[in-house]
Each structure stands twice: as structure tokens, then as C-alpha cells.
Specification:
The structure holds 2 protein chains of 2 kinds. By secondary structure, chain A is mainly alpha-helical. Chain A has helices at 4-43, 46-80, 82-91, 94-115, 125-152, 159-165, 182-211, 215-253, 255-262, 293-299, 322-349, 358-384, 397-400, 407-435, 438-442, and strands at residues 268-269, 273-275, 278-280, 283-285, 288-290, 305-306, 389-391, 395-396. Chain A has 15 helices and 8 strands. In chain A, strand 3 and strand 4 (283-285) form a beta hairpin. By secondary structure, chain B is mainly alpha-helical. The chains are: A mainly alpha, B mainly alpha.
Chain lengths: 443, 314
């Protein structure tokens, strides 16, 4: 029989892996709809009007599923990790609490957009209302990320006192807003949320463009694709920049995590960057080293020192498989970056229409799929690399978890429920989309 | 009453007021959706997401105001909380499906599934809440519950029936339905009577507190009487009084319960947030509450403009 903690972890991981995809769609879609509304109002363009309307139906249904899955994640936090929530509830709850108001803001402004239609006095108001809803959406993500940053770099209470006596003292509830890792983590989450969300719609519009041979539909999908690609371009650059900053801070803030991700067994100068490889019997095996590169990336100098796992007790080493996940993330991100640069080159320098190329459209679909892989791989890698800690150097996952075996059937129930509800939601969206033919709406 | 307890219960009162009215709408959706479709939808559609958000608000607020109780709640109430969350997902899913699937059989079917899911959520939420009041089915020392005893006891069942009856009256008054005008009033009176019956039989410690809390109870009963009179006269003002009555009634119930949980064995003051944490929570709630009221007022304003004032609108 597996230990309940395995089910705690698996259930939380599964719930988050589903929620995170719904969340990035919920964050990006309001931006796309707001742009559509703005262009529709400015150019009096029916294509954008129809696009805003159809995407908003998709948004309301996915928002319903996303809200509900967010509730499930909140419930999971409480009953899977009661000891963690008890500590966080005393020290780091403010961002989660304020997030509820951001969530209210999003829900109210979405309600205003959907049910207040026909009640605005300015033609740009629907775009503005949706933009405000989008702002509250990303604000929610930022505030929740602050709790995660607290887990990585805890602050706001007397940690030595807590570790020796178990008593919380010296509590500063505002410290959670500005831990050493808060703002870089928030910036990276914002950028990657728009990155993954935009690429999902790049893939969607590219797929629909590939599948149609009607001019009116092609025109429509090209417009959607252009908006999504524009957001994807900006978000990719921002993701790359914040990603580099994020990894650079790890070596000082979470040296164990850094060492596991970089596969560093011992602290060293002139550290090579390892491509691939694993650690077996305290030896790095199968890696391709690029001399000095890691030292240069982390410290700016080939002779710079980087931390190693040997500086820490072996019992607190994270799994070093996170190195392979990190390599996969960087590699795939690099490929998508090259693809976007290629698109830009063909469009700007060669003056060719990239949206007419089947190959390019196919690559956009692949990029969309890979962006979701990147999103999942990135956060799983980041969470695994903090293990065995749930709050770094304060509380382990085992200490925080619910030890009750009653978790097991509940965990299975949650997984089965998601497996039913998500495909059902997608089926309903598809069915609703077919109720009124897009072609008729565009005429 | 401590300020944190009041704040916590006030948020709960807003949530449960909305939930009670929604329960009445859910009964209408299950029993007579075709006939009451437009009235149900005009209330539920702009609000269902906001009601759900209030549920989350209360949940997170409880985590913030009573962090030391989380281990107990998180460990003991796993099953009912999780089941409530799953049926909440069904509620969300099917109300949104029904909105866009188009008129006809699928919409009716989805609306009925929404109604049933909402009532199941209500039953589970009430099972948790009533056990928090009475302590029935809860072993505080062992941090465990007996799910069957928790849900299927006379106190909980009576309260569930009472909330359904009160909710039905509230829904009839809010939608201004002439067809169920008098039956609605009878249901409301029966519901209130059942609340008192359940209190005297299942939570005598609350009944014992009645004489110390005459004012809040009297205010809510007066508002109930006003709601009945306005409703019977067919006044559109009745709906506002119904909300005020439900809100004040739930707050009064909280006053009777203060400061104990689980049949009087657990003093909530011993588990409340304190110091700077409590102060910031109150500040955040005050600022957030002002924002919330302003945003909801703007939502109502936009909806009223939509109803038509002659000006060009978008």
C-alpha cells in the first residue's frame, strides 16, 4: 500500500496541472477579446465583433471550469496540506486573501461585459471593461504566485524560533509581498502565462486556418492568428528575459535547487553547463559539458563559483531528474524562440506572407502544443527541485501532508472527476460553436 | 462579539444569503424550469459566478481569520468539503453550458442538472455548518467526523428543509412571481418555524442565548414581516427587503452561536488570528469591501442603462 503522502502529492499535482492550463487561457483570452473589441469599435469591423462574441462564449465556459478547478485547488491545499496551511494562514495569507478581491473584480467585470452589453455609453467601453477583467485575472495570478515565492524563500516570521520551538513569533504579514524571490517569480509567471495562453490560440487559429478553404473564414482566422502571434512575440521575449533572471537568482536564494537543476555535485569555479546526464553513484553520467558556460551564465565570469549538492545533507537533495526537465524546458523554449525569429525574418526581411505557408501553420500548431508542455514542465521542475521542502528549510512535504488514508479514494475521485468534466466542457464548447454557423455570422 | 468573528460571519452572511436565494431558484429550476425560465435566468445568469466567488471568499477568509483551526477542519472535514467542491464544479459547468447551448431540451436538461447540483452543494455545506454549530458527528479530539452522522441527523435535515423553504419564498419574492405568492409566504413561515424547532431540539445552547440577543433576532423577524407584507402587495421593493432580512437573520444566528463551535466545546476566540495579522485582515476587508460594493453598484447601473433610457448605448 502506498503511503498517503504519495496520494497527497499526486492529487495536488494533478489538480494543479489541469488548473494551470485553464488559468493561462483565462488570463490570455480577455486580452485577445479586448483587442478584438477595440479593433471592432475603431474599424467598425464585423469580423472582430464576431470574434469577440464567439471567444467570449468560450471564455465564460472555461472561466466557469477554471473557477471551479481553482476552488478545488484551494480545497486541496487545505485538506492535503493542513500543517502548511496552518502556518501560511498565520504568516502569508494576505496575498491569497486579497486575491479573492481580484477574483471578484474579474467576475464582476466579466458579468458586466456579458450581461451589461447594450448598456455602455462609449463604443470603446466593452473593450475597456474586458481589459479591466483581464487586469484582475493577471493580478490574481500575481498574488497567488506570492504564496509560492514564500514557499521558496520564506520570510515574515522568526524562523530559528519556529524551528526550535514550533511557535510562530515575530510575524510580519506584509513580508510575503516582498520576499527575495517574489518579484522575479511574479514577473516570470506573468510572462509565461501570456506566452502559453497566446500560443494555445496561435495553434487554435492556425489549425482552423489550415482546415478551411473558404475565403471569408480564412480572413477571419488570419485576423485572430495575427492578434495571438503579436501577444506571443512579446510574451516570448519577456519569458526568456525573466527566465534568465530567475535562474540567476537561484544560486544564492535556493542553492540546493540550483545545484540539482544544473547537476552540480560539488561547488566549483569554471563550472561547465551540462547538457543532459544524470547522477548515479555520486557521479555525473551521460552529460555533454560545455566548459565554463555555467559559471559565465551565473556569475558573468568563467572563473565564478557555483554551489554544489555536496554542501548539503544528502537527505535534503532534490531529485536530480529535474536537470533533464530543465534541459527539456530550455531546449524547447529555444526552438520556439528560433521559430518566432524565423517568422519575423520571413515577414520583415523577405516580405512574404507567413500565414499562407502550410509548413509555417503546421509549426504554429506544434508550437502551441509545445508551449503547454513548457508550462507544465517548467512548474513541475520548479516544484520538484524544492523537494523535500514545502517551505524551504522550514517544513518538509511529509510534515505538511495529511497522513490520513482516507485521502486515497478521494484522490482517485478527484482525478476521475477532472477526466470527465474537462472533455465534457470542450465538447459543449464545440457543440455551442456549431449552433450558429460562423460563415453566416460573418456575412 | 469580537471584530474578527463579526467580519467572518458578515462575509458568511452575504454568501449564505445569496446561496439561500439560489437554493430557491434551484428548486424552481428542478420543478418548473419551463414555466419560470426567464425569471430564473434574469436573476441567476449575471450572479452565479459572483455567488461562487463569495463561497471562495468565505473559504479563504476562514483560513485567514482562524488559521489555528485549519488542521482540524482540513483533517476532519475532508469528505464533505471535497464532495461539495466537486458538486460546485458541476453547478458551474452546467449553468454555463445551459446559457449557451440554445433554447430547448438540452438547456432544460442542463438547467435541471444545475439545480440538483446546487441543492446537493447546499446539503453538504449545511452538513458542515450544522455540525460546526452542534458538534453532531464530530470528534474534535480525534479530528475526525462520521460523514453519515454528520449529514443524516435531525438537526441538519431540519435545517436543510428550513433553508429550502426559506429559499423558495425568497426566490418567489425576488422574481416577483404572482403564481406562488401565497404558497411562498406559507413556505417562508414554515421555514422560520423549522429553524427555531431545530435550534431548540438540536442546539439548545443557541436557544439559551436568545435572551441575550433579543435585538438582532427581533430586527430579522421584523424584516421578515416587512418582506411578507411587501411581497403580498406585489411591491418590487420586497426583493431588497428579502435580502436584508436573510442577511440580518444569518447574522443574528451568528450572534447566538458566538463564540462557540461544536456544541459549545470549542471557543473560537482561542483560534483567531491576532496582532498585526488580524489588523491587516480587517484593513484589507474594509478596502476590498468598498471596491466590491462600488463594482457591484456599477454592474447594476450598467444593467439598468441596458433596460433603456433613450441614449445611444453599446
Amino acid at each position: 500500500m502506498l503511503a498517503p503522502i504519495i496520494f497527497d502529492r499526486a492529487t495536488m499535482g494533478f489538480a494543479l496541472s489541469v488548473h494551470i492550463v485553464l488559468a493561462v487561457i483565462g488570463i490570455t483570452l480577455p486580452v485577445i477579446i479586448a483587442v478584438c473589441e477595440y479593433l471592432a469599435a475603431r474599424r467598425d469591423d464585423n469580423d472582430y465583433k464576431v470574434m469577440a462574441r464567439r471567444l467570449s462564449v468560450m471564455l465564460v465556459i472555461l472561466f466557469a471550469a477554471g473557477t471551479a478547478s481553482g476552488v478545488l485547488v484551494a480545497v486541496n491545499l487545505l485538506f492535503l496540506w493542513p500543517a502548511f496551511m496552518s502556518l501560511a494562514g498565520s504568516v502569508a495569507i494576505l496575498p491569497v486573501y486579497i486575491e479573492v478581491f481580484a477574483f471578484f473584480g474579474e467576475a464582476i467585470f466579466l458579468a458586466m461585459y456579458f450581461y451589461g452589453r447594450g448598456g455602455f455609453s462609449n463604443k470603446y467601453a466593452p473593450a475597456a471593461v474586458m481589459a479591466v477583467a483581464g487586469f484582475f485575472g493577471i493580478l490574481s495570478a500575481m498574488l497567488i504566485t506570492m504564496l509560492n515565492a514564500f514557499m521558496n524563500t520564506p520570510a515574515g516570521f522568526d524562523i530559528p524560533q519556529y524551528l526550535s520551538t514550533g511557535v510562530l513569533s515575530g510575524i510580519n504579514p506584509l513580508a510575503v509581498f516582498n520576499t527575495p524571490s517574489t518579484w522575479i517569480e511574479v514577473a516570470h509567471v506573468v510572462a509565461t502565462s501570456y506566452f502559453a495562453g497566446a500560443f494555445i490560440f496561435v495553434a487554435y487559429f492556425a489549425y482552423r486556418l489550415l482546415k478551411t478553404d473558404k475565403d471569408v473564414l480564412k480572413r477571419y482566422f488570419r485576423k485572430g492568428l495575427k492578434i495571438s502571434l503579436a501577444i506571443a512575440f512579446v510574451a516570448t521575449i519577456a519569458s526568456l528575459y525573466t527566465g534568465i533572471l530567475s535562474i540567476a537568482t537561484l544560486s544564492t536564494l535556493q542553492p540546493e535547487k540550483y545545484a540539482a537543476i544544473e547537476l552540480d555535485l560539488v561547488p566549483q569555479s569554471h563550472a561547465p553547463e551540462y547538457i543532459g546526464g544524470i547522477i548515479t553513484n555520486n557521479t555525473v553520467v551521460g552529460a555533454i559539458p560545455i566548459p565554463n558556460l555555467q559559471s559565465i551564465l551565473d556569475t558573468g565570469s568563467p572563473s565564478g563559483s557555483v554551489p554544489g549538492l555536496s554542501q548539503f545533507p544528502q537527505s535534503t537533495w532534490p531529485t536530480t531528474y529535474v536537470h533533464l526537465m530543465f534541459d527539456a524546458m530550455v531546449g524547447v523554449g529555444f526552438l520556439i524562440g528560433i521559430f518566432l525569429a524565423l517568422l519575423l525574418l520571413v515577414r520583415v526581411v523577405l516580405r512574404k506572407d507567413v500565414l499562407k505557408s502550410r509548413l509555417m501553420l503546421l509549426l504554429m500548431i506544434v508550437s502551441g502544443i509545445l508551449s503547454v508542455f513548457l508550462l507544465e514542465d517548467g512548474w513541475i521542475m520548479s516544484e520538484l527541485a524544492r523537494q523535500p521542502w514545502i517551505i524551504y528549510n522550514v517544513m518538509t512535504v511529509v510534515q505538511a501532508g495529511n497522513p490520513s488514508s482516507s485521502i486515497v479514494p478521494l484522490s482517485i475521485g478527484i482525478v476521475v472527476f477532472y477526466i470527465v468534466i474537462i472533455p465534457l466542457t470542450l465538447l459543449v464548447i464545440k457543440k455551442i460553436g456549431k449552433n450558429v454557423a460562423l460563415e453566416d455570422e460573418l456575412k | 462579539m469580537s471584530s474578527l468573528y463579526f467580519m467572518n460571519y458578515a462575509v458568511f452572511a452575504v454568501f449564505f444569503t445569496l446561496m439561500t436565494v439560489e437554493a430557491g431558484m434551484a428548486v424552481l429550476a428542478v420543478t418548473s424550469y419551463e414555466g419560470a425560465r426567464d425569471k430564473i435566468r434574469s436573476y441567476i445568469m449575471p450572479l452565479w459566478e459572483i455567488i461562487g466567488t463569495f463561497a471562495v471568499f468565505y473559504f479563504v477568509e476562514f483560513e485567514a481569520t482562524y488559521p489555528s483551526l485549519l488542521t482540524l477542519v482540513g483533517t476532519a472535514y475532508i469528505l464533505p468539503i471535497l464532495l461539495a467542491a466537486l458538486f460546485f464544479i458541476l453547478r458551474n459547468a452546467f449553468i454555463s453550458y445551459s446559457e449557451y447551448i440554445g433554447k430547448g431540451r438540452p438547456e432544460n436538461r442542463y438547467a435541471k442538472i444545475y439545480g440538483i447540483s446546487t441543492l446537493v452543494v447546499l446539503f453538504l455545506v449545511l452538513s458542515i455548518l450544522t455540525s460546526g454549530v452542534s458538534g453532531i458527528g464530530v470528534d474534535v479530539q480525534q479530528m475526525s467526523v462520521n460523514p453519515l452522522a454528520l449529514s443524516f441527523n435531525l438537526f441538519n435535515i431540519t435545517m436543510f428543509v428550513a433553508v429550502i423553504l426559506i429559499g423558495w419564498f425568497a426566490a418567489v419574492a425576488v422574481t416577483g412571481s404572482a403564481r406562488y405568492r401565497k404558497p411562498g409566504v406559507y413556505a417562508g413561515i414554515a421555514g422560520i418555524a423549522l429553524v427555531f424547532v431545530s435550534m431548540f431540539s438540536g442546539a439548545p445552547h443557541l436557544a439559551a442565548n436568545l435572551q441575550d440577543n433579543v435585538m438582532p433576532v427581533a430586527v430579522s423577524i421584523a424584516l421578515f414581516a416587512a418582506a411578507i407584507v411587501l411581497h403580498l402587495k406585489g411591491s418590487s421593493f420586497a426583493r431588497y427587503v428579502v435580502f436584508a432580512w436573510l442577511f440580518s437573520g444569518i447574522l443574528a444566528y451568528g450572534a447566538l452561536q458566538y463564540p462557540y463551535m461544536f456544541g459549545g466545546v470549542l471557543d473560537t476566540n482561542a483560534y483567531a488570528a491576532s496582532g498585526a495579522g488580524a489588523a491587516y485582515l480587517i484593513i484589507a476587508t474594509a478596502i476590498g469591501g468598498i471596491f466590491l460594493v462600488a463594482a457591484l453598484a456599477y454592474l447594476i447601473y450598467v444593467n439598468q442603462r441596458k433596460a433603456g433610457n433613450g441614449a445611444k448605448t453599446y
